[in-house]
Amino acid sequence: MTRKADTFILYGRSMAKIKLLIAAVVIFLVVFRLWQSTGCRRFVSFEFDPLWVKLNVESQVGLDRSAPRDISRFFHNKAATGLYEAAKAYLTPLEGRRFAETVGLLPLIAAVIGLASIIRNKSIIGIGHIGLILIVLAIVLFSSKTSFNFYLLALAIPSLSIWSLDYFAKTKLRLLAVFVLAILTFYFFLFGWQMSTICYEIFFN
Amino acid sequence: MKSFLIKNSLLILILLIALFLRFYKLGQNPPGLYWDEAAIGYNAYSILKTAKDEYGNFLPVSFRSFDDYKAPFYIYLTVPSIAVFGLNEFAVRFPSAFFGVLTVLLTYLATREIFKNNKIALFSSLFLAISPWHLQFSRAAFEANLMLFLNLLGFLLFLHFGKLPSKGYKYLIASVISFGLAFNAYHAARIWVPLFLLMITIFYFKKLIGLRLKLIVPAAILILLIFPAVSNFQRATTRAKSVAIFGKPNFMQNFISGYLAHFSPNFLFIAGDQIGRHSIPGFGQLYVFQLPLVILGVISLAAKRTVDGRLLLAWFILSAIPAAVSTPVPHALRSITIVPLWSIITALGTVHLLESKIKNTIRYLLIAAILLIAFYNFATYLHLLWKHYPKLTAPDWQDGYREMTEYVNTIKDRYEKIAITDYYGHPYIYVLFYLQYDPALYQKQVNQNGFDRYEFFGESWEKKVTGPVLVVRPKWQIPEPAPKYLKFIYATNGDLVYRISEE
Lengths: 205, 503
What we know:
Chain A is mainly alpha-helical. Helices cover 67% and strands 4% of the residues of chain A.
């Protein structure tokens, strides 16, 4: 709930300017991160390898030596294990540290708030946007071009933050939070050149 | 009585499920006794027999153990359990399993108190009863599980106080006692309990301030209960210092990424905690079927405009902090306070789905699909727990110590010395535990490197006596020339653990 004293009484152009400013801050952070990653020679791969399914089934069945084969196959089969391995690979880019390292704190929080506001407002365009990001995650799963995958993720996920602009522009406190988070994110990026969860081998000029 | 049973039949059924899942073969699975469990058991045994810990300290407020100064409350609660069941794995794990079942009941009561909805409360307790995360920590002597129970009890009592501040004063006192005990139940509680108390103080500030001078009594009780740990700060924080990220490089980055790691979908639904004692390898902390319900539940919880609804949301956001300030991350044990919340959120999502206004056909199809996945998930979990877990995590639980010490016990009188490898960690506590060594006798000769006729060695062993010696070596130590081997000890997974020889 927002208190009256905190609420901006801004309409039209002024509100639009504030939103533009927040968007500019987010874009600056994303671009800065992309520029930092230009030194990366070998990006982390998220490509899904179907061989994992076979290996997983074999190792699980191997542990069931004493159990009847049918029971073992009920739990460890290519369908269930395939879904498990695919889900694991699909969700890997969203792993906490990697997520924070890829997009940074402010774009991440803004994306989460954006996601919440899409759901709350039941926005059809917003749901389409989420659908697009889910497709991007699937592309990453089947693409072997690791640098392309990174740029795709680094651009797609923060794009959700566009839906949080209304939320952040509403009160002075939230606007202040944006700038504090922006400073923290910049600090985070500035001391995180190694990008260990994004890049295997980085080269600094 | 009959009407009570009929009225609460679903809750009773859920509690029976919780009881069965927590107590069935409690002593056998997990497959061995982790050294902290052995230390808890032996110190409780020592208290039972002598009123002193293994070091001879009279009723200590902090147990020195492996110089990690264990929180005392779980150990004291294990004393009656050992008195009844004897010094064994079941007795050591009994308090955790018992309070695990009670946590299921408390979750029901707290949820009913907050949402005034029996359906949400029943679903919350059901999801906690079958929760892989909660079952994992209820089936071993994890002090954190006791802390979770006390935290939830304190919270429930506080809710009662919050409803009727003037008449509910006794609930406030009881709540404070519960939080004070939680503070003494687990190391991470020393971060979590103050954080949680601060949170509920903010939410109920007006009601608390309204008590004026009456606040002195609960404050004094709280101070009294946390005083032993605070006065013993240097020692009480020994363990914390070894795992905390405070003062280490990149604190802020590590904290933020560590915090986020606890909400990573891979950790929650796919792979779980990477420590073998904390989860079943290859299984998430939550069931996959919970994923859509959790999404619905979070939306539903965020929409709750009540103070208690917001309090739950704040609790949810804060609960990963004790784990995020330490390594490794994500850490299922240090973030255990979030477990009932995942169950409550799943229950909210379930009720939201059941009562949604979407077309009946679509709703029934969705419910049927989720039920199907839920049954398959649960069956897979049970299969992995009983068939795979003992084999996959035998080394994590120091499996083999029991068989080794039992064998040594049968022939120990034939030898002048018994030399045991310390390769698998803290062998002395296993010898004390499984041989039920007289605590009074051990207190006179406290030495983790050797006591009585036992000595513990590292890389290599050298014979220093003339008489026969029984030597217990790890599998990889093969002396030349080969000694006379008496027995090989294997773990549940079939791996060779010890070679026992006469030299």
